[in-house]
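S.,

As promised, the BIS(adenosine)-5'-pentaphosphate run. Input:
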Amino acid sequence: MATNSMNLEDVPSESLMSELLRRMKCAYKPDKRLILIGPPGSGKGTQSPIIKDEYCLCHLATGDMLRAAVAAKTPLGIKAKEAMDKGELVSDDLVVGIIDEAMKKPSCKKGFILDGFPRTVGQAQKLDDMLEKQGVKIDKVLDFAIDDAVLEERITGRWIHPASGRTYHTKFAPPKVPGLDDVTGEPLVQRKDDTAAVLKSRLDAFHKQTQPVIDYYSEKGIVAKLHAEKPQKEVTDEVKKVLS
Ligand code: AP5
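Predicted complex:
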């Protein structure tokens, strides 16, 4: 208790006030449980922070969690690395475990955005079981529909600020100074799997294993199809329309 109040005393007043205002605004937002599904580079990770802020949800991206585990060389990361480097999916059991754990975080109280999960029908069924136990269900699945031909340019031009997860694109969302993060000035990096060759395997996995997940949720009548090839702002407007 003493430690907590000490920590709060060290937090700048502006940060405390803005967090308080955020929580007051969030109290009036409806709960939402969303899945974002689409091929690599379709814009799931770009739209997620916008939806997260608008609806006070937590953003759970299995790809980000797995990359953190690989970087930290945890047992999970060691098991996942080989499949990720090749652009293949890691096993259902590994990702289901991390999602089950992550959904219990206090920041997921008003709901969540699942970005990149579920990616197989098996994962979708396990997710349904988990949610049923909590007495809740998925409200909407946003299908980032896009032609494969557009994706190579998006993937090979992507640059990331690893510490914050901020994403840039050399053509579509360039940083103010090439190669440097706008906020910290730190160097940007490219993901190891963001090459034209690995993209082929990732797209193959998407069409064979993940496309059936869209059919699975279509049968439940909760899929909203987006025009993910449109410019970023227009996709955001579509998302907001679907969720309002
Ligand atoms: P993951 O990290 O989930 O990668 P992915 O699904 O391939 O998705 P991306 O992050 O590449 O694409 P995105 O749609 O988020 O695109 P973004 O918004 O950044 O998974 C990586 C690996 O982890 C997998 O291959 C697998 O091995 C493993 N894995 C993860 N989850 C798993 C699971 N559930 N089961 C098993 N294995 C799993 O946009 C891309 C670029 O385009 C950016 O530069 C952006 O600025 C730009 N951009 C975005 N929107 C637009 C727009 N509208 N117009 C122009 N440019 C745009």
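Residues 38, 40-46, 62-63, 66, 83-84, 87-90, 95, 116-117, 119, 123, 154, 158, 167, 169, 172-173, 202, 231-232, 235 surround BIS(adenosine)-5'-pentaphosphate (CB under 6 Å). The chain has ten helices and seven strands.

- D.
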